[in-house]
Predict the structure of PTS galactitol transporter subunit IIC.
Amino acid sequence: MLNILSSIMDAFGAAIVVPVIIFFIALIMKVKPKKAFNAALNAGIGLTGFNMIIGAYTPIVTPAINRMVETTGVNLRILDTGWQATSVVAYSTQVGMIFLALGLVLQAVLFIIKFTDIFMPSDLWNNYSFMLWGSMLYISTGNLWLSIGLMVLSNLYCLTFTEIVAKRWSIYYGYPRCTMSAPHHICSVPLALLMDFLLTKLGANKVRWNPETLQDKLGFLGEPTSLGFVLGLCLGMAGNFMRLDSLTGWGEIMIIGISTSAIMAIFPKIAGIFASAFTAITDASKGTAKSSGGKDRVWYLAINDAAGYGETATLLTGMLLIPIVLLLAIFLPGNQTLPMVDLIAIPYMIELIICISNGNIFKSLISGTIWCVGGLYIITAVAPIFTQVAVDVGVNLPEGALMICSFAVMTNHIMGILFLIFMTQNPLWIGLTVVVYIILYLFVRIKKESIHAYLESMAKMEEEAGILAEKGAAV
């Protein structure tokens, strides 16, 4: 059974599995078959479009990033080889495969009994994040039940974080009744909330670094495509600093510039197709999903994190963070992690930070930097264990690398801390993580509407601060 489920995921991938799930959900909610099929087809088209454009963009930018790393001459012990290595580990261990089935059942049951309003099985592929940490714990301790307990508890934490931010993510990125629940990114919610609160108190929301303001102030240079082109040129020059005297270097610089501009131009069109896939379900849910109180049950469908990658503020902030994170990795005391392959994945990593700050690039750069720095230290602590697991399942270490990691997936403060606590096998510490979860769940469950209202009021405050700033500048 486990092998069959794994084979289905490997053979079809998210671009097929997600539309199939959407089709059957739509039918269950009494959407007409033709409309359900069109919704599913648009979801498949959107996901395929996201993957194609990001897949084409990555190999264009990656050589410049690698050259930036080589230019520094730094020699850190832990090399970022990309998220693929973590997925191989997750799908290659017995305990990982057990959770592939268990997680699917758990998430579906929790949704059906209304323990959560997040339908997480629609993003089944990203369960490999839970499977990774569980596999690492199992290889280290040999304790199957402890490893399963870690994966289940991590899943519960992630569902609660998703409940907190679901409405904000849906509104900001423009996907009705949808949210992003990827475990390796959703755990940034506590930090994003705290930093947004503190930065707003300090007046950072008055620093109007967002796409709309930049466009107003810079004219045509502030348009998303122009900003993308300029930022791409800067990134290309940073990666070709030692080749500015060659035609090849300038060729790569210009290609990166126009490619980044292309992302800005094409991504919104694909996002529009993808968003249209959920209109039928959203409309149907208003009349078919009733809660016990007689109100509409507002629930959210978990979708792939690629849906937010190319949004203007997200991509711009992610690109700006690449050189910042690389420099910090070199100079931070005690860090042994060299981010490399996954640097291009930073826009995925900061989606929750971006939507909570309502697209404020200035605030997001600060919060994103802190998130990434914490990730460097988490990875430094757990990379020896991950490397051992990876070698055991047949992953080959790159030449010259003592240890490997995935910067995008293993930059996870919450799951990293849970893993280290479970590694102690101390019942008191493990019990404390369960108690903290129960308190968090009850608080969110009782105060969810207030939390959503607070996040929307903070977003409105961002907009109002922008209007006041613009009026002040005009005077």
